[in-house]
Write a structure and sequence with these properties.
Elements: H1 3-17, H2 23-40, H3 53-67, H4 69-76, H5 78-94, H6 96-99, H7 103-132, H8 137-163, E1 172-174, E2 177-179, H9 183-187, H10 189-214, H11 216-220, E3 225-230, E4 236-241, H12 309-312, H13 316-343, H14 350-378, H15 380-404, H16 406-420, H17 423-435, H18 440-447, H19 450-468, H20 471-490
Antiparallel strand pairs: 1-2, 3-4
Helix pairs in contact: 1-7, 1-8, 1-10, 2-8, 2-13, 3-7, 3-18, 3-19, 4-5, 4-7, 5-7, 5-10, 7-8, 7-18, 8-10, 8-14, 13-15, 13-16, 13-17, 13-19, 13-20, 14-15, 14-16, 15-16, 15-17, 15-20, 17-18
Membrane topology: Multi-pass membrane protein
Transmembrane segments: 9-31, 51-68, 80-100, 106-130, 142-163, 191-213, 351-371, 445-467, 473-495
GO molecular function: transmembrane transporter activity
């Protein structure tokens, strides 16, 4: 099979595997139905917690899953780890049928377990695509990241079709929240989880099969890979790298090395220590230097040194990215989970808000790949700055227009999705660009570590602000958080 066909199979498999990674993209639409179920059966619930905790626990456990993705790969290998994590995700989604009776059980099973397995799958899919398509890593990741959006689009439609096919309106208000009182609607909520469990099994098992087929020849030859790059008019050098999980591989493209496109350092010497020579027996050192080889008629070659989690926490760039991620995640959390709750205070038609969510996700199927292409063309830092700044602006406008012109609010919800939905993809690519891809899963988990405390506090923070100063001020904090993220990413240019 031709190499391009194998890459296409791997990309298609990653796309299908990414379908169940989308809980945060559709949970905002599902949350009012879960709220209403818990309200209807509140007398039978032993420990009554806000169902919003499900999203928070998912985020926290997702981070843990990413951190443990590298150890899992070393123990079981990449493909077996993805398969086992997919099976775990199928179980956690289907268990919602029973767990819905207790909000705490739902948070732990549908949120916590699913988050761990999805975190492992996501980190490994990113690394798989960066290794498979080093010259077009941003584009490949963007295409893969359209999978969760398409999965969310399907989930939004399935939730509406299964739970509220008759377009019932929320008709009960209590404690600044609105609920559906229709018994038929609330009784259909558990069946949604069974339907989604079957969907998850179908997509992920087909996806891992395509990845396995596309990677078959690569797995046979991954003990030793020879990469040849012309560095002069009449000369060439060959670099041999071990492709095992413990070691780094040098990935060279004709125009550049996939790595830190925005922040390249140049060695003064003509030949870098990492290039093969008799002294180093043709191997690449694990902690390689960034370098550039230039002469008349030659190409410029740049490579970024892979850094471990222990190394990156000592750098200012890590803490700036950490701050940017934590800040922008607050904006992301509010928009994806609460746009429907917020809008229902003025817009009573459930079908309008559901349609808004479907259009948002349909648009992101197109936008996410374009964001990936743009990151290859103009740099991942620039894309992060533009989208976070836009998110800041549009969330502020959402607050204004909801009370003055509600139909514009629906439009702005769709537009705001464009800034918040690629959130995880953007920071995953930024982490790989800045610190290398060998440990990108664990490094990304470390970047997200600040969110563990944040997401566990979010339900308390959200409820406190709603009860004290109201919904508008809550969403204003989301706008301000995007402004902080924008400033932090811009500051990366001033630190080595």
């Amino acid at each position: 099979m031709h190499q391009s066909y194998r890459k296409a199979l791997v990309l298609a498999g990653a796309f299908l595997n990414a379908f169940p990674l989308s809980l945060l993209s559709f949970f905002g639409n599902l949350l009012p139905y879960i709220d209403s179920y818990c309200y209807a059966y509140r007398d039978q619930i032993v420990i009554n917690i806000d169902p919003l905790w499900t999203a928070s626990v998912f985020l926290g456990s997702f981070i843990l899953g990413m951190i443990f993705s590298t150890p899992a790969e070393r123990c079981f290998g990449m493909h077996l780890s993805i398969l086992l994590a997919n099976i775990g995700a199928i179980f956690s989604v289907s268990s919602g049928y029973f767990a819905i009776k207790e909000p705490l059980a739902l948070a732990l099973a549908f949120g916590g377990l699913q988050g761990v397995f999805v975190g492992i799958v996501y980190a490994m899919l990113i690394k798989l695509l960066l290794n498979t398509m080093p010259d077009h890593g941003g584009t490949a990741t963007g295409l893969m990241s359209a999978g969760p959006v398409l999965g969310a689009l399907i989930n939004v439609g399935v939730a509406y079709a299964v739970i509220n096919p008759n377009n019932k309106k929320p008709d009960v208000e209590m404690n600044n929240k609105v609920f559906f009182s229709d018994k038929g609607l609330t009784d259909r909520v558990p069946y949604y989880f069974l339907v989604v469990g079957v969907m998850t099994a179908t997509f992920t098992l087909i996806g891992i099969s395509l990845i396995y087929i596309g990677s078959w020849k690569t797995r046979q030859n991954d003990d030793e890979e020879t990469l040849t790059e012309s560095v002069g008019i009449d000369s060439s050098k060959t670099v041999t790298a071990s492709n095992k999980p413990e070691t780094s591989s040098l990935i060279v493209s004709g125009a550049r090395v996939y790595g830190n496109k925005d922040h390249q350092q140049v060695c003064k010497t003509k030949e870098c220590d990492s290039v093969s020579s008799p002294a180093n027996d043709g191997t690449v050192r694990e902690n390689r230097k960034t370098y550039s080889l230039q002469s008349n008629g030659t190409k410029k070659i740049n490579a970024v040194a892979d850094k471990s989690p222990r190394e990156i926490i000592k750098t200012a760039r890590f803490w700036l990215i950490w701050l940017a991620y934590v800040s922008s995640n607050h904006t992301n959390y509010l928009h994806l989970n609460l746009y429907k709750r917020y809008g229902e205070r003025v817009i009573q038609d459930d079908s309008l808000l559901v349609t808004c969510g479907i259009i948002s996700n349909a648009g992101m199927v197109i936008v996410r790949p374009l964001v990936g292409v743009a990151s290859d063309k103009i740099g991942i830092r620039g894309i992060n700055v533009y989208l976070n700044a836009a998110s800041c602006l549009f969330m502020s406008l959402m607050i204004i227009v909801l009370h003055t012109c509600p139909w514009i609010y629906l439009i702005l919800v769709v537009v705001e999705y464009m800034g918040t939905s690629p959130h995880t993809m953007l920071f995953s690519l930024l982490t790989a660009y800045e610190f290398g891809q060998t440990n990108c899963g664990s490094n990304m988990g470390l970047i997200r570590s600040g969110n563990i405390a944040l997401v566990l506090l979010e339900p308390f923070f959200v409820d406190f602000l709603i009860q004290t100063i109201g919904w508008d001020w809550l969403f204003l904090t989301g706008s301000l958080a995007s402004a902080v993220a924008t400033a932090a990413i811009m500051a990366l240019d001033y630190f080595p």
